Amino acid sequence: MKKTNLILLIIVLVLVIVTASIYFFQNTSSQPAYRDFAIKDTASIDKIFIADKNSNTVLLERKDGYWEANKSFVARRDLTNLLLETFYRIEVSSPVPNSKLDKVLKDLSVSGVKCEIYQNGKLSKTYYIGGVTDDNIGSYMIMEGSDQPFIVRIPGFNGFLNVRYNTNPNEWKEKLIFNYKVQDIAKVTVEYSNSPDESFIAISKGNNEFDLKEINGSKVKFDFDTIKVKTYISSCKLIGFDAYISDSLQQEKYDSLSVLPFVAKYTIEDIHGNAKSFKTYLRQNITKLLDDEGNLYEWDIDYLYGILDDKTVVLLQYYVIDPIATGKYEFIKNTEEHDY
Question: Could you tell me the pTM of the whole model?
Answer without folding.
Answer: 0.70
